[in-house]
Amino acid sequence: MNDLSRLSRRSLLGQGAAIAGLSLAAGRGFSQAAGGPGLAAAWRDAFRIGIAVSNQTLDRQIPGDLELIRREFNSVTAENAMKWGVIRPDGVNWQWERPDRLVDFAAANDMYVLGHTLVWHSQVPQSVFTDAGGAPLRRDALLGRMEEHIGTLVGRYRGRVHAWDVVNEAIDEGMGWRRSPWFNVIGDDYMEQAFRFAHAVDGDARLLYNDYNMHNPGKREFLVGVLRDYLERDVPIHGIGDQAHVGLDYPDMEEWERSIATYAEMGLEVHITELDVDVLPNPNRPSADVSTRVDPAAAANPWPNGLPEEMQEQLADRYEQIFRMFLRYRASIERVTFWGLHDGVSWKNNFPVRGRTNYPLLFDRNLEPKPAHDRLMELAAAEV
Ligand code: GLA
Questions:
Q1: Is the pLDDT of residue 201 over 50?
Q2: C-alpha dihedral over 288, 294, 298, 300, to 10 degrees?
């Protein structure tokens, strides 16, 4: 029996059950883990530290991955396993195995679980928006489909998934509501309806709106208007998810802090949901000193064989700067989740350019902590 299914059995049997072969670490609960050596323990008095768990980890139940997650983190998000296109690849039939494993693993280790994500324009089968004959759905039919999806998914994990990214990426920086199929068919109340459906099924779950580039003033201004309206009308929204896919020199820290301060002042929970720090040159942001004599391919992927020490330091400095800012809002920040366990599995190796070697996370390709990890441990020891 592999590690995760052992944990599932263990969670079924209850905390006291002894199962031959179960490692000591696998049986560690949150209270003990929090006394352990990892990030979550170091930061526990400020906020939770979470991790996105990949399908690969869930499918292969890689023991090294699971051990690292238990040692360092006290919150988990499914990187892909709960998205509509993955949990219902044909649009209709459910694939529960991966999310069940994740939720069982979290329960066995007293971790806070994020459901990601219920309504999104991406990673959703196009058939969700059409009827059996391929004709586009009308508003009521699509709302019904949304309600059924949310009801089944939130209902299955009621009390075990603690917070949901109810709607992901609904706002376009320049133009307010993104013109997604959800918006185009249902109208601008689709987001509010999604929150109401989720709340009706699990009244205790924390419900979040999640997006990227939350530092962007246009996005902030539009979202603040939506949130004020929701709070006035008792639409059940409890917080915002700030994805925080950032880089060494972006976003502008003042703008980012202004956004976090604004949501905190509104009394909302702030969740940092998908943190990573891109260290590679961004082709969409040409640097002023790009030399025409440099081979563009080499310039775009400068460190295929390892990150130089000087860059490790820059990354550690950047993480320290970011976490110092988070500490100023510790009363409102519920958790900080990293988007991937180690550099080798980060989506940033393939975005915005495919096939590069990136180093955005705290653990290297051998699952060893990087200087940025140690810096955050030191910062916690000094400031938390
Ligand atoms: C967005 C989504 C995540 C993930 C990343 C890219 O941020 O919310 O689920 O797909 O893009 O990995």
A1: yes
A2: 20
Q: Is 52:77 a contact under the CB 8 Å cutoff?
A: yes
Q: How far is the CA of 296 from the centre of ligand 1 (A)?
A: 27
pTM score of the predicted model: 0.90
Integer Cα distance of 88 and 81 in angstroms: 10
Q: Which residues fall within 8 angstroms of residue 83, CB to CB, at 6 or more apart?
A: 116, 117, 120, 123, 124
Which of the residues are catalytic?
169, 274
> Region 374-382: what's the mean pLDDT?
98
Cα of 337 from ligand 1 centre, angstroms: 13
d(C-alpha 96, C-alpha 58), whole Å: 12
Q: Say which CATH topology domain 4-282+292-383 has.
A: TIM Barrel (3.20.20)
Q: Taking a C-beta distance cutoff of 8 angstroms, is the pair 255, 296 a contact?
A: no
Tell me the C-alpha distance between 100 and 297, whole Å: 42
Among the listed residues 237, 226, 253, 124, the one whose alpha carbon sits nearest the alpha carbon of residue 172: 226
Q: What is the pLDDT of residue 173?
A: 86
Whether residue 285 has pLDDT greater than 70: no
Domain ranges, ordered by start, for the chain: 4-282+292-383
